């Protein structure tokens, strides 16, 4: 075996990272190695991460926020004035079936013990792990669904809603600062992690998720009139985001977001923040209404949202994502839902006509 293959690494970096995404330097070797292990043996390295940085106590703190946000989604369905009682009933059945128990780490970690790993042969390790994964996937054919399976590894800084399982999953990686800090005040937590939870829950009722029922089957459970009302409201969101331009095409011409490509994520962002906000107001600390560092609790929910959304992206990456990513760039994931919320306007005493107040507010959930 060759001792190293830096030529291939540089070529890969030059095209995928530098040319396509505008990276200025290659990631340090240790980061690339950690990524490789996370990709191939993520539930093994993930267990080490969870034992050290998360643990069972972390899970309980999040579970309470999940329950409170879930109650707000239920309230949102009950009070949606555009939805008929018939469709609401079905939406509530679906809501009751959402599995929100996958928090932090799997109850049973994947067993990789059949993979041969050695210290001096990266390619062989990689191949063995790939073969293991391929065998694992093939073994599912003809068997019933394994509902305990996770699609993300525990250290992943992300979360998901899986329509076929009707479940939300929050790995330990996203349950840490700046998204979640068990010692921070609750207003911040609801704005930062509460809205992530609300976002994932809303996916069950976005333009795609709404097409699945509570058991994860692709079924149309909507009355025709309600589906039409939903589409009208969603179109408002699509139009709103199609007006946002995060970057130019390199020649000074603005590139705009594709409001249809990003629709589901935008609907989920809007619903998610709204449910997190109202869940906070009903929580213990939300009732106490204390000013901290000069900010009211209502303002701190939005600050938590803003702080947890911070990111820095090269223009090249932004141009790539605009045509490929169903998520809007962070700046508009932040602004989009806020301008639609009268709650933001009153929290910061904004006046009509100011940039953070939309004259034509969109709302699905
Ligand atoms: Zn999403």
Protein architecture, described:
By secondary structure, the protein is mainly alpha-helical. It folds into two domains: 86 residues, no CATH class; 254 residues, 3-Layer(aba) Sandwich (Collagenase (Catalytic Domain)), CATH 3.40.390. The chain contains 13 helices and five strands. The protein is globular. The N and C termini lie far apart (57 Å). The structure holds zinc ion. Zinc ion binds next to helix 6 and helix 8. Zinc ion (ZN) binds next to helix 6 and helix 8.
Write the layout of secondary structure elements.
Elements: H1 6-21, H2 29-53, H3 55-79, H4 85-96, E1 99-104, H5 122-138, E2 160-162, E3 167-171, H6 186-203, H7 224-242, E4 247-248, E5 254-255, H8 263-282, H9 284-288, H10 297-308, H11 315-324, H12 330-339, H13 342-347
Parallel strand pairs: 1-3
Antiparallel strand pairs: 2-3, 4-5
Helix pairs in contact: 3-4, 3-6, 3-8, 6-8, 6-10, 8-10, 8-12
This protein binds zinc ion.
